[in-house]
Design a protein that fits this description.
With 112 residues, the protein is mainly alpha-helical. It has one domain. Helix content is 47%, strand content 11%. Strands 1-4 form a two-stranded parallel ribbon. A two-stranded antiparallel sheet has the order 2-3.
Protein backbone atom coordinates (compact mmCIF):
# COMPACT_ATOMS: atom_id res chain seq x y z
CA UNK A 1 0.00 0.00 0.00
CA UNK A 2 1.24 3.48 -0.85
CA UNK A 3 0.58 6.30 1.59
CA UNK A 4 -0.25 9.85 0.59
CA UNK A 5 3.07 11.54 -0.20
CA UNK A 6 3.07 15.33 0.26
CA UNK A 7 6.20 15.57 -1.91
CA UNK A 8 4.72 13.77 -4.93
CA UNK A 9 2.37 15.21 -7.53
CA UNK A 10 -1.02 16.14 -6.09
CA UNK A 11 -4.10 16.96 -8.14
CA UNK A 12 -6.09 19.69 -6.40
CA UNK A 13 -9.62 20.43 -7.58
CA UNK A 14 -12.16 22.87 -6.19
CA UNK A 15 -15.91 23.03 -6.08
CA UNK A 16 -17.06 24.20 -2.67
CA UNK A 17 -14.07 22.64 -0.91
CA UNK A 18 -10.58 21.72 -2.08
CA UNK A 19 -10.06 18.06 -2.90
CA UNK A 20 -6.59 16.56 -2.99
CA UNK A 21 -6.07 13.45 -5.06
CA UNK A 22 -3.03 11.28 -5.57
CA UNK A 23 -3.44 8.22 -7.83
CA UNK A 24 -2.70 4.91 -6.15
CA UNK A 25 -2.37 6.38 -2.66
CA UNK A 26 -4.40 5.58 0.43
CA UNK A 27 -5.15 8.71 2.38
CA UNK A 28 -7.47 9.94 5.07
CA UNK A 29 -8.15 13.03 7.11
CA UNK A 30 -7.98 13.25 10.87
CA UNK A 31 -9.86 16.04 12.57
CA UNK A 32 -8.66 17.09 15.98
CA UNK A 33 -9.58 19.85 18.39
CA UNK A 34 -7.08 22.70 18.74
CA UNK A 35 -6.25 21.72 22.32
CA UNK A 36 -6.04 17.95 21.72
CA UNK A 37 -2.23 18.00 21.71
CA UNK A 38 -0.28 20.24 24.11
CA UNK A 39 2.03 22.83 22.55
CA UNK A 40 5.17 21.20 23.99
CA UNK A 41 4.26 17.90 22.31
CA UNK A 42 3.64 19.65 18.97
CA UNK A 43 6.94 21.56 19.16
CA UNK A 44 8.86 18.36 19.92
CA UNK A 45 7.09 16.50 17.12
CA UNK A 46 7.89 19.26 14.63
CA UNK A 47 11.57 19.25 15.64
CA UNK A 48 11.85 15.45 15.37
CA UNK A 49 10.11 15.42 11.97
CA UNK A 50 12.46 18.09 10.63
CA UNK A 51 15.53 16.23 11.92
CA UNK A 52 14.29 12.98 10.37
CA UNK A 53 13.52 14.61 7.02
CA UNK A 54 16.99 16.21 6.92
CA UNK A 55 18.52 12.71 6.89
CA UNK A 56 15.91 11.22 4.52
CA UNK A 57 15.77 13.36 1.37
CA UNK A 58 12.76 13.39 -0.94
CA UNK A 59 11.53 11.43 -2.75
CA UNK A 60 11.26 8.91 0.05
CA UNK A 61 11.74 5.24 -0.66
CA UNK A 62 8.85 2.93 0.22
CA UNK A 63 10.76 1.79 3.31
CA UNK A 64 11.49 5.36 4.44
CA UNK A 65 7.89 6.38 3.88
CA UNK A 66 6.67 3.46 5.99
CA UNK A 67 9.21 4.34 8.71
CA UNK A 68 8.07 7.98 8.68
CA UNK A 69 4.45 6.95 9.23
CA UNK A 70 5.43 4.43 11.91
CA UNK A 71 7.51 6.99 13.79
CA UNK A 72 5.27 10.01 13.48
CA UNK A 73 1.70 9.10 12.52
CA UNK A 74 1.49 6.27 15.02
CA UNK A 75 2.92 8.51 17.75
CA UNK A 76 0.36 11.24 17.05
CA UNK A 77 -2.43 8.66 17.15
CA UNK A 78 -1.19 7.48 20.54
CA UNK A 79 -1.11 11.04 21.91
CA UNK A 80 -4.59 11.75 20.56
CA UNK A 81 -5.87 8.58 22.24
CA UNK A 82 -4.56 9.86 25.59
CA UNK A 83 -7.38 12.45 25.68
CA UNK A 84 -5.50 15.72 26.18
CA UNK A 85 -7.47 18.96 26.16
CA UNK A 86 -11.15 19.63 26.74
CA UNK A 87 -12.43 16.63 24.74
CA UNK A 88 -15.67 18.45 23.88
CA UNK A 89 -16.81 15.64 21.59
CA UNK A 90 -17.38 13.48 24.65
CA UNK A 91 -20.52 15.57 25.14
CA UNK A 92 -23.37 13.75 23.33
CA UNK A 93 -25.05 16.90 21.98
CA UNK A 94 -21.85 18.34 20.48
CA UNK A 95 -20.82 14.93 19.12
CA UNK A 96 -24.22 14.65 17.38
CA UNK A 97 -23.91 18.11 15.81
CA UNK A 98 -20.48 17.27 14.35
CA UNK A 99 -21.57 13.79 13.25
CA UNK A 100 -24.62 15.18 11.45
CA UNK A 101 -22.57 17.88 9.74
CA UNK A 102 -20.02 15.35 8.47
CA UNK A 103 -22.78 13.10 7.10
CA UNK A 104 -24.88 15.92 5.60
CA UNK A 105 -23.71 15.59 1.99
CA UNK A 106 -24.02 11.83 2.12
CA UNK A 107 -27.74 12.29 2.74
CA UNK A 108 -28.07 15.41 0.52
CA UNK A 109 -25.65 15.12 -2.45
CA UNK A 110 -24.70 18.33 -4.22
CA UNK A 111 -25.97 18.81 -7.77
CA UNK A 112 -23.41 18.75 -10.56
Amino acid sequence: MRFFNPFAEIRVTRHNLPHWQQPGAAYFITFRMADSLPDEILRGLDLERRRWLETHPSPLSFEDEAEFHRLFSAQVDQWLDEGHGSCVLRQPLLRTVVNDALKFFHRHPMDG
